[in-house]
Specification:
The protein is an alpha+beta fold and about 120 residues long. The protein has 2 helices and 5 strands, in the order βαββαββ. A hairpin with a 5-residue loop joins strand 4 and strand 5.
């Protein structure tokens, strides 16, 4: 696809409810799809999953041109709705110095270490 993707996991992993896990997955999926659809030319993408009890945060950042990114498309609307279900925060927009960023932060009410 011409995309160079890196993944990093930070913090001490803890179990998340299945619905939260699915939400994080779908936001990552939509974010990567948006880079494919809207970035001009090959992009480098950084995906960072942070466990910061009681929060789980997903950040997807690219270094492509932001000229084509829609600020309020259907995909972004869906990300906002998914994050809002869990009373989370979503920040979406151009990055300083170029590129695009999606950051979703969701609070997990009951944090449990993995079995």
């Amino acid at each position: 696809t011409g995309l160079d993707v890196t993944f990093e996991e930070l913090g001490s992993r803890f179990d998340v409810p299945a619905a939260v896990g699915l939400t994080v997955y779908r936001i990552a999926q939509e974010s990567l799809t948006n880079v494919l659809k809207h970035a001009d030319g090959p992009s480098t993408i950084e995906v960072v999953l942070t466990f910061d009890a009681p929060f789980v945060e997903l950040a997807v950042r690219d270094d492509g041109s932001t000229a084509q990114h829609a600020v309020d498309g259907h995909g972004l609307h869906g990300m906002r709705e998914r994050t809002a279900i869990f009373d989370g925060q979503l920040v979406v927009g151009p990055r300083q110095g170029g590129g695009w960023e999606v950051v979703s932060r969701i609070r997990i009410d009951e944090v449990r270490a993995p079995a």
